[in-house]
Amino acid sequence: MSLLRAANGFERIHNGIYQRGRTGEVPLLPTDLAELESMALAALQPEHAGYLNGGAGRGRTVATNRGAFDRLELTPAVLNNVAHRDHATTLCSTRMAAPVFVSPMGGLSLAHPDADTAIVRAAAERGVPTAISPMACTRVEDLARAAPDSVRWMELLWHNNDAVIDSMLARAQESGIDTLIIGVDLPTLGWRPAALDHAYLPFLHGVGATNILTDPAFLAMMNNPQDHDERARRWSELSADASRTWESLERLRARWRGPLIVKGLQRPSDARRAVNAGADAVFVSNHGGRQVDGAAATLSLLPAIVDEIDGDVPVLVDGGVRSGADVVMALALGADAVGLGRLVLWGLTVAGQDGVGHVLDCVLAEMDATIANLGVASAQDLRAADVVREYSGERSIC
Q1: Could you write out the three-class secondary structure of the chain?
Q2: Which SUPFAM superfamilies match (predicted)?
Q3: Which of 66, 93, 117, 282 has the greatest number of CB atoms lying within 10 Å of its CB?
Q4: Is 112 assigned a catalytic role?
Q5: Where are the domains of the chain?
Q6: 319-349: pLDDT as tens digits
Q7: Mind listing the pLDDT tens digit for each residue in 202-257?
Q8: Catalytic one among 87, 112, 159, 287?
Q9: Domain 3-390 top-level CATH class
């Protein structure tokens, strides 16, 4: 059994830093993970940073996602027995060391040459699942071989060509992917000035388009597969289909035999509709603030969606998570699992697989320490423990 899957294994990450400090060793990267952002942005080319880190419009939703965590506070309970803690869970048939996963992100070779492979390997070592992006820079078959126990989830880009969709579904199943994520919040690309100002969309340059450009059904559409201009044009023709409806979701459900997660839900009524259409889990997400400038924070939307679903299927959430304490807040509001996006991107940019591992170690160890100090022994017990509330703006001193 992996150390991180053992009881209280995350605490050993925490204690290990102090033990190594006895010989003068300090962490190579900051343990306040928010500090990684400036390091990562300094390392990226401006046009690459514009695509990878930019948000929609004036960035209000990116800020709102983050600000929602600052409006909450935790209320510890004391003298509870939390000596033996276990945060392991199973979601959509995937065993997880903790209710944490890596959200799908595309074009990652802009950040580091090892890109998706570095992430899946670091995550696999820690029992954390990675949701493979449809815009991965490595073929899904190769990622599955790189981390066969971790690569179980894949997001599908909802193309307007059924032959390509069927081919991607078949490739996913043959690679051992058993859970499909379908994003429903991308009928068209959001208005992203940080990318537009550089006129740079990586997929038109072949970055993050690997799975499509190597797909047999896509290649069959080409007159000349070696013609870069034709490839870019054909890829653009295939991109997100704005004609998709709830009936389209039902048809996709019928075509995929494994668990189906519907991502990009922001209304309780849409979450319920997704369940009625056959979703095995609902994913509260606003695309990291990259689609609609001024959209509500996912953390703020979470409680109403959790109440609407009422335990019928798991509820996942991402957006604005910057620490293990943030993970705890989302879990306390009812999420069954929490996705990490930009944090992992920053770790990858700064130090590749080691940087991703550092981010995951810090998140998992802080999550465990926070849960223990709240007087709770399991991440799954956080909501019932009633340890989170909205900050009233008033403080009392006792």
Answers
A1: CCHHHCCCHHHHHHHHHHHHHCCCCCCCCCCCHHHHHHHHHHHCCHHHHHHHHCCCCCCHHHHHHHHHHHCEEECCCCCCCCCCCCCCEEECCEEECCCEEECCCCCHHHCCCCHHHHHHHHHHHCCCCEEECCCCCCCHHHHHHHCCCCCCEEEECCCCCHHHHHHHHHHHHHCCCCEEEEECCCCCCCCCHHHHCCCCCHHHHCCCCHHHHCCHHHHHHCCCCCCHHHHHHHHHHHCCCCCCCHHHHHHHHHHCCCCEEEEEECCHHHHHHHHHCCCCEEEECCHHHCCCCCCCCHHHHHHHHHHHHCCCCCEEECCCCCCHHHHHHHHHCCCCEEEECHHHHHHHHHHHHHHHHHHHHHHHHHHHHHHHHCCCCCHHHHHHHCCEEECCCCCCCC
A2: FMN-linked oxidoreductases
A3: 282
A4: no
A5: 3-390
A6: 999 999 999 999 999 999 999 999 999 999 9
A7: 998 989 989 998 999 999 988 887 888 888 888 888 877 889 999 999 999 999 99
A8: 287
A9: alpha beta
